[in-house]
Input
Amino acid sequence: MAMPILIIGESGSGKTASLRNFKKGEIYIFEVAGKELPFKNDFDNFVKQRATYDDIKKITLAAAAKKPGAVKTWVIDDSQYLMAFESFARAKETGYSKNVDLAKNFKDLIDFVITALPRDWTVYFLHHLAVDENTGVRHAKTLGKMLDNQLTVEGMFTMVLMTNVLQGKYTFITHNLDGLSTVKSPIGMFADNEIDNDLKVVDRKVRDYYGWDKPASPAKEDK
Output
């Protein structure tokens, strides 16, 4: 059971830049939008040619089967474009079934992360946000009411962080302070309500909190 983690924010608010402190071999990035990364790097685990649902599932399953040495930190950058690009590709189709497929394919990806990948893996969904016109709540951007009303995407994530930019300082919001966002994090994981937008630090916090990288206790001998 891998842990999907949602990072929401406006374009240019530091979501992708938060990967800057990872080193070669520590992370695998699926670049859905096909963009270059906004910082110099020597990453070799990087799919930047419009990564698809099939790419994500095929590559992660192959890595999970290859032990030891598999990368444990994965990123789906601009994950909302998985829905958007599928919607544009099927723009001429009519009928409600298309919308059902768009919603189901994204939900199935989250289910896949949770059920098919190893327990000590983190999978970050870097995702644009939207603002509800009626309530003002900032939430993950989707393509319709099925994901928003019938599912609530954030409900499938234990942790949702939101980017913030103020006077040139880029941060993550870790707790929901005003009820106008879907931000949440496990109790006691973060002491501060706002932290530097460094996803490597966040990943270390997650692993320490759940004790994933602790060596297994030696078996006690029978007396």
Strands lie at 3-9, 28-31, 46-47, 73-77, 122-131, 138-140, 159-166, 169-173, 194-196. The longest strand covers residues 122-131. The chain has a mean pLDDT of 90.
